[in-house]
Structure formats: C-alpha cells, structure tokens
Amino acid sequence: MNRVQRIVVVGGGHAGAEASRAAALLGVETVLLTLDPSAVGRMSCNPSIGGQAKGQIVREVDALGGLMGRAADRSGIHFRVLNRSKGPAMHSPRAQCDRTLYEQEVRGFVDAAGVKVLRGEVAGLRFDGRNIAAVVLADGTEIECGAVVLTTGTFLGGVLHAGEDTQHGGRLGEGAAHLLSRNLSSMGLRMGRLKTGTPPRLLRSSIAWEQLELQPSEEPPQRFSFLDEPLLPRRVDCAITRTTPEVHAVIAGNLHRSPMFAGRIQGRGPRYCPSIEDKIHRFADKDSHQIFLEPEGLDNNLIYPNGISTSLPKDVQEEFVRLIPGLEQAEFAAHGYAVEYDHVDPTECDHTLGLKAWPGVYLGGQINGTTGYEEAAGQGFLAGANAALALTGAAPLVLGRHEAYLGVLVDDLVLRGVSEPYRMFTSLAEHRLLLRHHDADVRLAEHAIRLGVLESAQCVHVAQRRERRERAQVLLVQQRFQGRSLEEQLRTPNFGFADALAASPELQQLRLDQRDQDELGMAARYSGYVARELDSVERRRAEEGRHLPTGFDYAAVSHLRAEAREKLGRIRPTTVGQAMRIPGISPADMATVLLHVSVAERKSGTA
Amino acid sequence: MDAGRTIVAVASARGPSQRGIVRLSGPQSVAFVSSMFSASPFGGPAARGGTAAAGLHEGSIELGCLRVPCTLWLRLAPRSFTGEDCAELHVPGAPLLLAQIVQHLCDLGAERAAPGEFTRLAFAHGKLDLSQAEAVAQLTAAAGEAERRVALALLAGGLSRRLLELEAAVHHVLIPLELGFDFSDQDVLVPLPEDGIARLGEAAQALEALAEQGRAREAASGRRLVLLRGLPNAGKSTLFNALVGSQRALVSGEAGTTRDLVYADAECLGMALTFVDSAGADVGCTAVELAAQAARENVATQADLLLEVQAGTQAAAHVPMSGPRSLSVWTHADLGGDQDGLHVCALNGLGMDALRAAIHAALRQSCADVGVLNLRQAEACREAAAALRCAASGIGHNAPGELVAADLHAALRAASALSGRDAPGALLDRIFSGFCIGK
C-alpha cells in the first residue's frame, strides 16, 4: 500500500515542535496543527530548561539534532550547572529563559525546517483498516496523512481548577481537545487521567528585591548546544525567599476549599512537584519551604515563584502570598491553577513511540503520562523522527538504556507504564555513569549520523571528534609513564591532562581541543566503574538480542501464570530483555515462554 | 538461551553419592575441561585421539593442590544431549568437591546454568520434544512440594529479614546521596550519616555469614541430613529402611553388618531429607572398621539432626542426651521398654508417625533459623556483601558520591535478585514518603 507521504503533528508544545521539525528535516511534508499558532513552543509552566537528569536529556536531544538546546541557549538569561560539587556524571545544566525569546526561537526553527503551521482542533483520526489515513478537524475538513504524531499536552480533555472555579482548557485562557480524547478512547486505547499545577505569576515591580537573597547566573555559562555558540542575551539574577508558619496557617485553614481536598480533582499529580497545599498537608512538621523567584524574561514584568504551585481559591492565594517575606506588596498578573488532563497508557506504544494496534499513530509528551518540557521534547523528537523513518522505509531510531536518558525514558514508559506523571531522575538510569552530559554528542554520534537530522557539516564534525577520542583513549591505555599507563596516572590527583600530553607526542598529534581533554580526563577518572557498567551491559546483550515473535499467542502457553499471560499479551515485548523488565514477569515465566517460542519457530522454520 | 555461552552445573542428584557429575555445554566446554583434566596413560580408547576427541577419557583433574580421579565424557556438537559441545566430569560424589569443580570452571569463564537450561538447550536443538521438555521444566521449576515450602519458609524467615536489614542499611546511606543528586536544588539535603560505614559493614558481615552457611549446607547436601547412629545391633538399619521406605540397607541380626555409610533421600511430612545409616559405634579395630567410624563422625558434624538409636530391650550402656540437634530413639518397642524418648517398632510401624513428626519439628526449627541457600543465592549474597564493602571503603576514602552510589545500587540489585523486589522503584518511594520534594 502506498501511504500518503505527509505527517500531521497535533499540538505545538515542546514535543510537537521537535516532532514536526525532525519529520520535516527528514524529508517528509509536515503539517503542525495547533489550537493557537502564536503559542508554538510556549512554556506553560516555569521559564526554565534543564535540571537534574533533564539537562542531560536536552544535551541528548541536541546531539541528535533537536532544537531545544539551541533555543534555550539563545534565550537563556540565567545559567547554572547543578551538582557541580559531585562527579561529572551528575552535572546537570539548567537555564532560565526569556519566555518570549524562547517562543520566537522555537518558531524560527520550526519554520526554517519547512513545517506548515495551521490552526485547527483535531476531532478524530480516520483509518484505512488499521492504518492511519487522515486527521479529521472539528469543522469536518480532513488532512490526509501517512502518519500522525499526537502531542496534545494538557489539552487532551483538559480541565482547569482554581478553588471552586472549574473551566475547560489546557492552559489559562485557551481551549481544550475533548473530541480527540473521546476518539482515542473509542479506538480501544487504555486511558488515564493525571493532574499538574502551576503557581501564580507576580509583577516584578511589586517585589521587594532588596530584602531577598540573590542568586546570580554562573559565569561562564554552560551552554546546552554542541552545534553552535550564538551570542547570549544578558543575564539576570534570581532570588530566594521562604514560606513562614503564618503562611502555612492560612493555607491549612483553607484546605477544604482546594479542589484536590474537596475531591473535585481525580487525576493523580506528581509526588515530586506537589502543590504548596499538598506540601503543607503531607509534611505538617516542616514550618518553611523554599521559593525561587524567577524572572520570566528580560523586558518581561512577570516573576515565576517556583515552589508555590497551587489551586486554592484566588482570595486565599493573594492572602498567603502577601505573607511571604519580600512579597508583602505582591501584585498578581495571573493566579495559580491545577490542570487535569487525559493521557494514553504508554504501554500501548512500542519502542518507536508508535501505537502497536494502530500503525502510523505516534504519541509524544504528556499524552504518554510524562511531565516536563525536556521529557516532552525528547519524546517528540523520537516520535517525529520515527514517523518519518517509517514513511520512508528506514529502520527506526531506538536508543538503549545504556546509551541515553532518552532510552531509559522510552523503555520505562512502554514497558512499565505510569502511575503518576513520569519525570526523569538520574536514579532511574542504572547506567547513569555512562550518561554524562558532556559527551552526549560523541555517545550518540552513530545514531545522529544515521538519522540525518544533523546537517552534513555537523555530522563530519562529530564523527571526527569521535574518532579523535577513540584514538586518544587507546593511547591513554597503551602508553606508559613512570610505570603506569597514562589512564592510571590521570586517576591520581597530581597528574593532569597537560602532563599526559607532555608525556606522549602521539597524543599531541591528535590535536585534542579543550573539550576533548576535559572529557578524556573525566572518562579516565571513571574508567574502572565504566568498565564494570559496560560489562553488565554486555552480559545483558544476550537477553536483549533474543527476539520474541511479534504475533506470539501467549494465551496458548499452558502453565504460564495468568498475570504473566495478561501482561506479555498486552505489552508484547519484542525481546527477552524487555520482557524481564516488565514488573511482575519472572525468569521462570520466561523459561516457559521460551520453550513454546522455540516450538513455534521450529514449526515455521525460522529457528 | 543464547549462542556463545558455556554453562555448567552439577548434573548428578543432589546429596552425597558414589558418583558425582559436573556437566558443561557450550562452545568452550572442551577448552575448559582440557585445562584441568589430564588423561592417564592407560586411559580409554578415546585417549588416542587426544583429550579433545569425543568419547570417554580416564584420568584425573587438578583442583589447586588436589588431584582427583575423573572420568571425562566428551560429546561434540551436534551429537550431544544439548546439541552443543558437551562435557561431563564424573568424579567421587562429594558435594563439596562438586561445588569446587563448578566454581573452578566458573573462574575459567563458564556460567552457572539456570534451572532447566540444559533441557532448554536440548529442546532448542531438537533433541527433546515439547512434552519431554515441559516435564523437565516442571520438575526443575518446583523440585518437590517440600523444597517449595522450605523456600517459602526461608523467605518468611531468616533470609527476607536479612534482606530487609540490608536494604535498610543501604537506604540509610543511599537516600542522602540520591537526594544530593536528584534534588540538590531543594532544601531537603541531609549529610551522610556518621554510622554509615559501620552499618554497611554490619550488613556485609551478615550477608557473608549467610553465604557461608549456604555454602556449608550445599556442601553437606543441599537437602537436610539426618544421621542414624548408635551401638551395634541397635536396629539402625531396620529403622533406616522404614524411614526411607525401601530395603536400602542390608539388615541382619549380626552386629556390625553395616560398615559403609548408606544414604537415601526420602520425604518426611513434606520435607526433603537425606537419611544416613552408619556403622555401629565401638565395633572392631581393623583399618576398615576405624575408617567407618571416622566417616560416621565426619558426617555427624555436618548432619542437621542425629537420631541416637538404642534398642529398648538393652540396658543403656551410655545414654545419649537428646540435644537440639539430636533425638533419642528406642527401637524394639514391641518388646517393651520405658526409657525417656521416642519408642518405635520399625517392623510393625508402632511410634513411626510420632518419630516423623519429631524429626519434622526439630528440622523446621533449624531451617527457619539459618536457611538453606542454594549456590546461586549464596553467590548473590557474596556479591551484595562485596559491593557493600566497596561502598564503605569508598566513603572512608572520600570517593565521589556517585561511585559510592553505584556500589550501593549494585548491592540492591544483587539483593533484589534474591527477593524479587523492584529496587529503584522502592528507593524513590522511600524518598518521596520521607522528604518534601518539589519547588
């Protein structure tokens, strides 16, 4: 069957922007459908990119050719590397961005790739058999396509809550997509409902900055992008304040008016980003919580008070905020609210983020139950790229858990599902020592070059860097200095990379730049542990390489426990390694399955 | 499961026996055994073709300073049980020796076979049909109702308690570390606890002790061992036959009929046991008889339970006390007797049910206490302990936190292989329930 060589991306947030741009750069005509074309790349919540594990994701997206890192650099007004006191694998870049500049940059990248941005609400999908044929708009028009990427964010069945007020919408003052939600559930997809929230926005001019502890940007700033080094906007300071027992008393006295506590919100919220009323309720013994006051831009008069996300009634918000030191005169530009939205159980997707039951439909971002701009951008990129790769008949882009946080993210989603909004933590990546942000470009070079979103000059550049590093690594192991290999010497405190260069003319000939030298020094420090990690990756390779047939009938396996039969039949892992990562599947289950798989294979002559 | 691996396991029945068999399958089988095996000059016909030729080779293997007589069977792919190159080492059936051979082969690069793996290979290479393979798979999946119950008892008792202790010690140190990595921008940071190194050391020690016990057990039998001993002609062999349900031991009215140790496996109220009949105490002074006495005393030190058997009709010459590891049993109950202890008549079954119940009760106590780890579990314990020691030393030397954490995660992974709990999920749950996270 000839599929229409067009991809429709539904939604213009961080996932949709990456998805549409990646698909377009891979040579497929791409349409981005959004409720509001002026809101492409909008930061719905805090004006920052990166942070623990998330900063690493941004670097990975950038290494593959995505836009988030470059847009964040060009709009960054406050840079910090978190965890600088820890080892390099734990370093996480973070930037606060000028919200308006960021939107402009994102839109610029999307337009430059040739994406056609259209206004419209998608009401449903039309299929030809099980294959996607078109998206159907609310006004009845259809756009034929060979693949669709859904990145609906909080707009899928979105409902906003602030105190006793409830209204439909995915963001304050914007609409929601209710028709699409019903359509997805009628396709037989398992759906769930989640919740998230945002704090009020305050006017910068109404805050008593002189009373507060300031937090300046780090110099020199750690950029996200490997690809270019544009001029950065000027930097601004943030400030820190805290809640007080008086603030807590006001909130505690009004808990009954919160939609969460009154039971009007059913969706499950993230435990790591609770509302201020949640914090005060659950951690009643704490009498103070930190608040970061983050400017939303250079010429923007808005402040994002990070730490007081709330859905309390507006009058309560005003009362408690004005009890916080420095915010006594605070004026509100917008009030905080909670948003509830639908998502699809991500175990409906395979590792390309495509729906298993509906070929050609890809999901990315909050629709998969995640939270965070970076998680969304990463999934959007992968979903858009895979949609284009599938249309052009190329092999999909699937990253391993040992290769990238993005690999961990997708693998966790499609095998384990979600019970609360999923965000990335370094502790979720068992091989995090291998996933340093510094070398994401070299680590993912092979994937990036094969994929082809990067421009060819960038491909050559990273391929050269990768080759230099590999040669240098060999030299460091082979060449000796005072009875030890150079690599061992680099692990001792008083031997720097300059000493290694002095000891080895061959190393000098490689013309390593500062980045190479820094990264090789870090790799040497970690080498024993890295070898152990690689060894455990290698040991699992056998399980990862043992394929399970796609159409295998688990129901026919007598002796298989009911739970294993249900989960394997529904999630349909493609390898033994994947199957073993599904919660509740034991080695004994797999032994039983493999027996039957061997029979099936022998019958069909593929053993 | 995959090409390229060479797997190894003890293939003979568990427990001491005349012959023990260690089996290997995989491409390096021949290379591994050749490195430890030397053919005797008077070896079998296959010896002419060198030790890499298929067939039977007589000779010996070297294990450290020990040289053990050995018959080596080689079967080359595809004409073997599994369809791959296979080797079998037939050696005297001492469990400790078998365990050492397996360990040595693992050191060379072989991997321990998963339960039923040989069968799966055989099946994959078309050597067995599905029904045969399934029969074996079911057997290996639950080797007897009794062992399953022992395993459950283990998890309910000592083992899972120790694993929880391990997890608590690891979390004690790991949570501050992980908070420092994933939540360093929030005011939830706590310093590493001062007793961290000590806690990790204690946990490591407990695991090492558990692994040692496991090893001792596996060496002794893997099943629990019940030794019958007593004066000559006390009726030990008659009782032994009654307990194991067959005429395993030769019985006669003549004192000193039994000289060698006789082993037999039997279930006792669902518990998998190995009974051992021994020569009567104080018989003879020939070399053979002395050797029999020594062998019995050796087993007595390993046995989980001693049945001190005396004829109820005899005046007790020396009355052995019933201790925690022993039961006094008086035979010939049909002929009378009023001593303290259990009275049985093996011939008409009088008192046998009571004896079985007593054996069961005595062993259930000891089993809940120590636990019977198999070799793989013991190895997981040692792995966890080594990782804990590494972490403790890392803290002591101010190693970067992420490296200490890497060791602690390795310990949790080893432990979760034992308990089946989801380590990373549990850790995040602990963090979220204990700390207020979220800006």
Would you write up a description of this structure?
The complex is a heterodimer of chains A (607) and B (439). By secondary structure, chain A is of the alpha+beta class. Chain A is built from 20 helices and 23 strands. In chain A, helix 1 (14-25) links the parallel strand 1 and strand 2 (29-34). In chain A, helix 1 (14-25) packs parallel to helix 4 (99-112), helix 3 crosses helix 4 and helix 6 runs antiparallel to helix 8 (314-321). The mean pLDDT of chain A is 93. Chain B is α/β, with parallel strands linked by helices and 439 residues long. Chain B is built from 13 helices and 13 strands. In chain B, helix 3 runs antiparallel to helix 4 (130-141), helix 6 (158-182) packs antiparallel against helix 7 and helix 7 (196-220) runs antiparallel to helix 11. Classes of the chains: A alpha+beta (607), B alpha/beta (439).
* Low-pLDDT residue intervals, each spanning 5 or more residues of chain B: 43-49, 138-153, 367-371
**Largest contact between protein chains?**
A-B, 56 and 44 residues
Could you list the spans of chain A in which at least 5 consecutive residues all have pLDDT below 50? Answer: none
Average of pLDDT of chain A: 93
Task: Give the helix/strand class of chain A.
Answer: alpha+beta
What is the oligomer described by this structure? heterodimer
Radius of gyration of chain B: 26 Å
The helical percent of chain B reads 40-55%
Widest sheet: strand ordering of chain A: 15-16-17-18-14-19
Please give the order of strands in the largest beta sheet of chain B. Answer: 3-4-5-6-2-1-7
Helix segment tally of chain A: 20
**SS elements, strand count of chain B:** 13
State mean pLDDT of chain B (0 to 100 scale).
76
Computed CA radius of gyration of chain A, to the nearest angstrom = 25 Å
How does the overall form of chain B come out from the CA principal axes?
A: globular
Characterize the largest beta sheet of chain A: strand count, sense, and whether it forms a barrel: 6 strands, antiparallel
